[in-house]
Design goal:
73% of the residues lie in helices and 0% in strands. The chain is built from 12 helices and no strands.
Amino acid sequence: MAVAGAPAHRGRVIAAFIAIYLIWGSTYLGIRFAIETIPPFILSASRFSLAGLIMLIAARVRRAPGVTLPQFRTAAIVGSLLMLGNSLVGVAEQRIPSGIAALLVAMTPLFMVLLEWLRPGGRRPSAPVFVGVGLGLVGLALLVGPESMRGGSSSGIGALVLVLGSLSWAAGSLYTKFAPKSSSGTMATGAQMLAGGLTLLAASIVAGEPSHLDLAHASTESLVAFVYLLTFGSLIGFTAYVYLLSHTTAAKASTYAYVNPVVAVLLGWAIGHETVTKRTVLAAAVILAGVAIITVTRDEGPVTRGDQ
């Protein structure tokens, strides 16, 4: 019986890897299409709130344990930081190509290393991790150069927004390692998504986005992209990632961190007609080499960006 189940198990693992590689890599282009007629904060707020509700309902149907008050506080803090970091991708993609955005987001492990080092009682990175961080910074310098990001100050602002978004995601990821959380991964993540979605709804109101939302004139392309991001990016992609964390090593599961940007750049070029320069390719190679070194040499589990 074990022998008969082995191929099926391998098949599910392979399918899960394909899902997080391709689906999460494609979400950057999906976000670009969605924000053409849907404001970025409203896009993320509605997407994550709905996904969170669906996951919470699914967890209750499976009789998963509920969320205590301390756990809900953790979910609210972590969800707000993570979902804010993700929503800033849409803000940045109003100014820079989706492929460039994916490469900048790929540097999240670098910020995780730095925040872990700077926090009280933090741990100093090892020498190989320092090498990875250094490569990441070199790649960032190449990526934001004038030849790879045209558009002047607008591109610079977009890059800065993504740096802030990656810092927010890294802070949320670091906080969740030490804070109380539900024993049910589905319940915890659903609570995080719902809490983060409500935070983004407040952010959209502060930013004045509701006055710019006109669903009657939203393009079919944007609406299809929204449905894709909700179902594939948030629900299917995350489910596949959680499955991998239970059936393979964290290091292997987190390899999506340096596959997604390649997928995003290729899709942005092939479908989104985004320009890919030699400088972009060189920067991508340097950044992904740094991310690979950080991911492989760290022993704290996955620190990379998830749930696109």
